[in-house]
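Hey,
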Amino acid sequence: MYPEVLQAHPALAVTIATVLGLLVGSFLNVVIYRLPRMLEAEWEQQAAELRGESVQAIERFNLLVPRSRCPGCARPIAAHENIPVLSYLALRGRCAGCGIRIPPRYPLVEALTGALFGLAVWHFGWTPAAGGAMLVTMALIAMAFIDLDTQLLPDSLTLPLLWAGLLFNLWGVFVPLESAVIGAMAGYLSLWSVYWVFRLVTGKEGMGFGDFKLLAALGAWFGWQALPVIILLSSLVGAAVGLSLMLFRGHRREVPIPFGPYLAGAGLLALFVGRPIGNWMGFAV
């Protein structure tokens, strides 16, 4: 009954999806902040075990525990202070306890996720494709901001995204399964080849293995036909941003710039407008 109601009332469906996206965006802020720290703690523990050192018990820390708190005064955040976007506006961007400034990234992630969830339902309708689009959106937003902060693209995000793309395309939700499988292989091997050519020529690593896996995941979702558009768009934007940083911000050439956010942005473009962009660029998407 409910799917039929939502199909018959697109505005209601988009509103529900947007509200859901705001809530998911609030959780993504937790993922963006905590997941790298969880991985770092895990690596330190493994390194200590390999050295034969005793591992000290640490406070339980995961995506659910402990409760969110202010980094300035360690005051737990109350439920009414954690309403997406609205709480930030009501608090005027500051902690209610100590007055420390809350980074604007938090409401930005929430608003971006909400907007893209609403766009997914508006674009695809209340269909499995919209569900897939929301899943891709969640993963790409989380990975883009994690990569910006840490220059890491965790396997715990890239690999499930890849397998989820193949799963959705078992039923051809976005592309035929054959195109998705070839896309996953071609996505990985294309950047892997660029990596090794660059390393043989310069002796340096031009990108991380997480970038290979992310492009493979995008190929699994959108097929090999979308890869030229994704690679071209991400490379052009990445080059433009890199040059701008060096010219206007004094960014040194030897300091690496994460490529994941540009791949994520290009992936979102491929999700919503990949076909017309591909046709305009001369690629058959």
